[in-house]
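We close this part of the discussion by returning to an individual protein. In the encoding step, the backbone of a single protein was reduced to a row of integers, each denoting a local shape. The sequence in question and its structure tokens are set out directly beneath this paragraph.
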Amino acid sequence: MKYVEVGGVRLSAIGLGTWQFGSREWNYGNEYAEKEAVAITQRAVDLGINLIDTAEIYAFGKSERIVGRAIAGRRDEAFLATKVFPIMPVAPIVEQRGRRSAARLGVDQIDLYQVHWPNPVIPTSTTMQGMRRLVDAGVVRHVGVSNFPLDKWQRSEREFGGPVLSNQVQYSLAVRKPDRDLIPWAQANDRIVIAYSPLAQGLLSARYDGTNTPGGVRSSNALFLKENIDKAMPMLDALRDIAKAHGASPAQVALAWVIRRPNVVAIPGASKVSQLESNAAAADLDLTDEDDARLTEASDRFAPKSGAAALPDLVRARFGR
């Protein structure tokens, strides 16, 4: 496993995202939540993955409980990250909910406590006061944010009165917005970007086309519209070619591209242990500069339909009208 050392912490370049654990929207079922999710987490730790990311909103605390059960007896091998959902994130509520997350995880201290989204109404200053109280009380070791633009990340640091170690954002070959400012700022300031959806919810596995698309929560993702998959084909073909040259899978190549960026780690999810093992192996895949350039160029040319422009097509795809 490759590791990234930033801000005094050592994180596996490939982590484990646990949104799926217990969440009904993924349609994985109770067997997955009760058994497979625990086995995935334990196997991740076996393979040297120490970054395990969850959130209180994932299955309304069930994901945290599953992670806590899985790492029981192996606490020192895991860097546990969770997130406070920003409904009324004033200082006392943030402090209360941080303690509840620690209890669900079964730990005395959360390694990284993140604000899941910016709240457009509640000032960040009061949220960061709650974070400061948790750190001072020893309940939280490091503070992070998620889905924050750069100016709000920087403001959070000022209001917290110390480093806000990380910003967890969507980042992949298909979604490159963090390249503009978040990643350069992290690289210049000893901070880290945690990439969620590093496989674009499976688009970059190169398994889907216009006649074969995923269901569940991904059915509302505009990336899986036929028009967008067609636009992605040059990028997917590049992934397939490079994967073949390295004896790897397209998904592994896509993950290797993400973690080739300094100060970036990735937290793909996994539906089964074998997928987790494949994700972990991506940390040992050495892309060439030529591979990187081809993928980046193909990504630069990918311009999917999104937002309001994609809404009518999503409605037709989902409801047939």
The chain has eleven helices and ten strands. Residues 3-200+250-286 form a domain with the TIM Barrel fold (CATH 3.20.20.100).
